[in-house]
Amino acid sequence: MKRRSFFRTLVSAPAASALLAQQQPQAAPGLPGRQTVEPPKLEATATDQAGDPVPRFFNAQQFAALSKVSEMLMPPLNGAPGAVEARVPEFLDFLIGESQADRQQVYGAGLDALNAESKRRFNKPFAEIGAGEADMLLAPLRAPWTYDPPSDPLANFLVTAKQDVRTATMNSREWNSAGGAAGGRRGFGGTGLYWNPI
To answer: What are the domain boundaries of the chain?
Structure first.
């Protein structure tokens, strides 16, 4: 079967060349000696710049909490974009959705615990509380560092998310562009090395 496909491809190659030749610019009809008519050139746009991405892995309340956590963990600073400007919540939604089940559990349980604690203490989901109230809920991040991850789902999520948000922000296209424009070395500072949206 593979041999048959190979020969079919080999036979169709001249036909493909003929089709490509037909698409070359032709002389304008009725105007001998005039310039050729070029086919229109269409500008391509990256899909992440054409529209707003829709969360795929997290539900709406989890994604809103993740966005607020990202904003608090990595705000804009000295001309560098913050996590929200670097579209880190959207990237993490993709990344965690494609990750192992234990990593998905850390994020899912942590975001749910964060929203539950916020509702218990402030009668609002985490995304709707003020910065001062949110800072109180991020208190586990101020605990001394240990080799072992925290056993509390909320603390474990916050420690994990802190590293992920920082890494994703500093390796984003937006951070890279800002570093290159500033002439400095933020992240890779304009060398074109960043994660690409998929």
So the answer is: 55-182
Rg (CA), the chain: 25
Between CA 155 and CA 66 the distance in angstroms is 14
The CA-based dihedral angle spanning residues 47, 49, 53, 57, taken in that order and rounded to the nearest 10 degrees? 70
* Angle subtended at Cα 38 by Cα 35 and Cα 44, rounded to the nearest 5 degrees: 155
- Using DSSP's 3-state secondary structure scheme, residue 94 falls into helix
Q: Which residues have CB under 8 Å from 178's CB, separation 6+?
A: 79, 80, 81, 186
| Residue reference for tokens 């218990």 | 120
Report which of residues 170 and 188 the model is more confident about: 170
Euclidean distance between the first and the last CA atom of the chain, given in angstroms as a whole number: 33
- Of 100, 168, 113, whose CA–CA distance to 140 is shortest? 113
Model pLDDT, residue 23 = 53
Going by C-beta distance under 8 Å and a sequence separation of 6 or more, which residues neighbour residue 158?
69, 110, 114, 138, 140, 141
Pairing mode, strands 26-27 and 36-37 = antiparallel
Q: Which has more pLDDT, 35 or 140?
A: 140
**Per-residue DSSP letter, 42:** P
DSSP class of residue 129 equals S
pLDDT of 25 strictly over 90: no
Give this prediction's pTM.
0.65
